Amino acid sequence: MKKLVLILAATVLMASMCDREPKPEPAPDPDPTPAEITFAKGADISWVSEMEKDGKTFKKRDGSTADIFAVLADCGINAIRLRVWVDPYKGWSGKDDVVALAKRAAKAQMAVMVDFHYSDFFADPGRQIMPAAWDADKGSLDKLCTHIAQHTTDVLNALKAAGVSPKWIQIGNETRNGMMWPAGQLWTSAGDIANGYSNFAKLFNAGSHAAKAVFPEALVMPHLNNAYEDNDWWFQRVKAAGANFDAIALSHYPQAESGMTAAQYNQKALANIRSLYSTYKVPIIVSEVGVKPAKSDAASVLKSFVDELKNIEGCGGVFYWEPEVYGGWKPEIYGKPDEIYRYTGKRETWGSYDQGAFSSDGSPSAIMDAFKD
After folding, report:
1. Residue 26: helix, strand or coil by DSSP?
2. Which residue in 81, 266, 327, 369 has its CB near the most CB atoms, within 10 A?
3. All structural domains of the chain
4. CB 247 within 8 A of CB 283
5. Residue by residue, what is the 3-state secondary structure of 210-259?
6. For 95-119, what is each residue's pLDDT tens digit?
7. Contact predicate 144/203, CB 8 Å
8. Are 156 and 117 in contact (CB under 8 A)?
9. pLDDT digits (tens, 9 = 90+) for 1-23
10. How far apart are CA 169 and CA 222, in angstroms?
């Protein structure tokens, strides 16, 4: 009996000791996933893989060398935009390059935007050049729609296989005068092109429907330059022609314009963003913004703009265009007039981008403070 009492006493003592031992702390909540981002503080860094090939490195503010995605995250960036061309020079911004960068972004817990240009080089309001491989079919809208759908599906399936699910998909880049000229052009100096808007809508929808088939939850959107302009007429026209979109993307370069102060350009853009959301009730994304670091007010111009965007109902975020450029770096093709001619029809050389937001040592400049909470 005495032995049994001792055993019971020891058992009670051990139990009481276990009760007094500290309980493990609950596991911390996981980092937010890209899908949980409500306001994108983003950057288009489509040049970064070529920059890294050229030996460019990046630093945090404390001077430590780090991967570009870690440097951007330290600045408050939570989303990445990547352009994709059909058959680009040496593969830069082609499918494989985009997938590789998108995987790095996803690993860094950043949301991803894919920007389809439907060209082999930059598409913008003054240049919407048909991909060379599709040019033989420029007279057949149906064949071009098939090309767009296949290209869109191919790129997005590659991203899906890599485990990346884009949050936004841009169908065309700065398509104010349409896309893939002449098939999707909207007007010439003589006026509107017959069936221009309906042709554009068919091309746009070919990309949009293909995108939604692969990623049904992604926001598919058209993209216009000059956020400071009243662009409602354009969206009315393309919507009436049958274009289907879930969001609207805009570009804004307040110091690249003239005639008003940068602050005035900002206020006009902000007013138009409010108006577009009120009319269409879809998220409005500033998918490109940039300021000129050579101007003393660059940082304050961007910060005031971003701060106000955060408080606008329906604004889904803002992306700085190629902030990582520094030290006069430029893509190899910019110094090759014959190659530029192959993509643009003009034999010329181009200078380096003048709105990068990194300092000469590869660290973020004060411009990037706009993305800090």
Report:
1. coil
2. 81
3. 33-371 (3.20.20.80)
4. yes
5. HHHHHCCCCEEECEECCCCCCCHHHHHHHHHCCCCCCCEEEEECCCCCCC
6. 999 999 999 999 999 999 999 999 9
7. yes
8. no
9. 444 334 344 443 434 333 333 33
10. 9
